[in-house]
Design goal:
This protein is elongated. Helix content is about 70%, strand content about 0%. The chain is built from 10 helices and no strands. The model has no long low-confidence stretch (mean pLDDT about 90). It is mainly α.
Amino acid sequence: MTIFKEDPNYRKLLNYALRALAKRSLTSMEVREKLRKRPGFTFEIAETVLSRLKELSLINDENYIKIYIDNSLRLKPQGLFRIANKLKLKGIPHEDTKKIWESFAPSQYELAQNALNKIPNKRPDQKARFLASRGFSPDIIYKLLAQNGRSM
């Protein structure tokens, strides 16, 4: 590890990663992909840079998931599937998202009910498509529509 710290490519990649993280939060995979595109990239140096950033708590995927879920739920009600798929594109495994979701997010049923309240005068099939597009599971959609007396 000390060998890399003397390497000018290590310094360049570390500085680039720090500049990227100053703009917005990134996952480990996103930082790795950004580093891969830079000249002087080697796998060993990139892993050393990532471990240093994690050591400094500048990259924390678990914290990123919590913030992402919180922001997504505040902006508009979305289901676990939609959020998990967006995070999967950022390199976060579905299992990690599900574990953190279950620890602090409200129930998907309540979120679906809140989302459904935004479109009260629609047909049941339109409501079902709306909820499905927001990432709610079919079980929750059917339960909610049946509870409202408009089952499919």
